[in-house]
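# step 3/5: fold
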Amino acid sequence: MAKFARRRIIFYFFSIVLFIAAMFPVYAGGRQEPELTRADDLIKELRHDEAILLLTDFARRNPRMFDQAQQRLRKIYQTRDEFNRTADTLIDTLIRDPENNERVLALSRHLYTLEHESSPLMINFVARTREIAQFNINRILLRRIMERGRDLLDRGESLAALQTYAEGMSFMREEFFLAGFGQTIEIEVNRETERINAMLASFQQVSTQMGAVSAELLRAINAGETARVPEITSRLNTAMDRFIALKHTVYTSLNSFERTLNAIRAVNPDTGDRNHLSFLSAVIRGRQNESISEGMLGAFDNYWNNSIGSILTGITQNLERSNTTAISALQARNFTAVSSALSNTDYLVNLTPFYFDKHRQLYETGRQPATALYGATILNIDIPRFIEIRALREANGYLVNAAGIASRAAGDGGSFASYQQGTMSAAQALVLEQQTRANIVTMQRSIVELVARADQFHTEINRFHNTMHVFNTARAIENLNRIYTAEGQQSAARFFSISQENLNASIAQRKVQLEKARELLNGESAVAADGTAVVYRYPTEAFAELTALNTAMTNDLQASNAVMEQFRIEQAAGNTDPQIAALRASYQASLNELNSVRDQSTPLTETARTRSSQAEAHRLEGERLFREAQAAFQRRNFDLAIERLNDATGRLDDSLAIQESPPLRQTRDNQIMSLSGAIAEAMNDSVIEEVRTLLGSAQTSYYNGNFQQAESNLVTASNRWRLINSEPHEEVVYWLGIVRIALSATSGRVIPPTAPLYPEMSQLLNQA
């Protein structure tokens, strides 16, 4: 009010200055025609219109004095031109800078030095300035209305703000209808004004209904009463449609006012904003380029935001809480809780398109700019809220995926504990740790891909509005990956520890196998039944033991090389855990020890193989000779049979000397003794039969007097008998004595006392 009063004082002061300035006359000097002198006086008195008429008539009647009259006319035109420029500057100052009092006063005083106050030009200017002064007064009042309306909007008092803006509907109304714009325009303006008044009367009832239902819906959403949402939404839809229709009536009236104002400005460009319709447009639209929508339309938008907007705010807050809870659960690796926290989020997100579409309908007549985003058409003013919800939807989706991925990376080191307790084999424990490690690696790879997608979406969505939901979620998921990186190192350490212990156990077992093979190869000392010292060697068994040892070591080395490759993979992946580095050094030392065992096994294996082959060759040769002995025996070639049997016995003994084999020893003893006995028995029977034959032949020869032939047969029979008997054959000895006596008697031979069977022969001779 102080500024308004000051401007009124300036206006009245300006009028007084104009009046006082008109009291001072302007004189001209010099001798001239009376009419020219009168013209000069009129110019000095600033009565330019009278001077123009006088000079024009004078020049017509006095052509010779035309130049003098024209000089005075040019002076008047120059003064008028300066007046117009000064007047325009003053009006512009009054419109654009009304509070610049010094400039307004200076320009006003200067105008009254250029034109008489009774001049039509001055009268027209004063009328214009009065109009501008009234416009400035209304503009000041409008500014205050705007300020009070904004304050009410900031406090959420939409109805009070609407009523405040309505106070400006009367500005310059009387002047508008006195301006004579025509009946058609006046009727249209009155009709649309009444439409606005009807809207003002309906706003409270329509808005209150929509606000009550929206609050009910918000309570149901916050309470998780999803079963009630469809029914409440149906009622809210009806209330929103009424509210939207009410705002559209305002758009209709606004468009009419602005269309009429543009038509008036087309006829009178100087109208500018000094018009009732301009003020109506201002109170409806409010101030432009403000942080919120103002004016009557702003009151609608404000109420919508505080009611329907609160639903979207509530949904967003629920999504944010779910996101925060899910992130905490993810970091605690409670993956079931992640899914539980986000179980209702899709339902909430799916509610929002309805409200964004209704908001677009609210602005439909006002032609509010919109953008196509992610399959929906969204008002530009709704983009931040839409992006927030979309970002939360995507962020929560990433959390669900991350929980699903991470839940498959199970492994708490239980296999290592079971292995140490002896309830699980090393192979089983290693398989489980490998599964755990593989799961972690797979999970980390999936997490990296998921984080990359999240970061890409964050970059994409931030082109429309800056939001950190996806970024923060991605970092939480990334942190989970770092946690599992540490667990992967622990799993790797467990795997390598089990591998180390398993390798050491294998090395101990391989050393036992090696020593056993060496003992089998070197043989064991014993005392035979005859008291002699013997060494029983077992190269075949040693070779079998060494073969098994070598096979086992081959498997051990393959497994060990696989473990060393895993060490290299860990190193290539940047795993610098000191524990794993120490395990690698220890494992390499054990692997070197295993290679040492293999190096010792190689020559022993070759020795065992060679000796076993030699023993086998002797055995095969002995069996071949034995078969030849059997064949000779079958042919009754006893001498050859005995020779082959002796050779077979030698070869088998050679085999047993290299490779002890109780079955072979028993077989040898049984077969050789059996064949030897059979040969001896067969030879005995043959000798007995031959001796009998020779004895019979000797007797026959004796009786035939062929004593020499008889002696020869008997000697042969005696020799054959001695092959199988150590004692002489009595009957052969007896007959040999008889035959020799006969030979002696017939040949004069004397039987020496030293001759065999001398007593018997002497007795026979005596008897003869």
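# step 4/5: annotate
The chain is about 80% helix and 0% strand.
# step 5/5: archive (pending)
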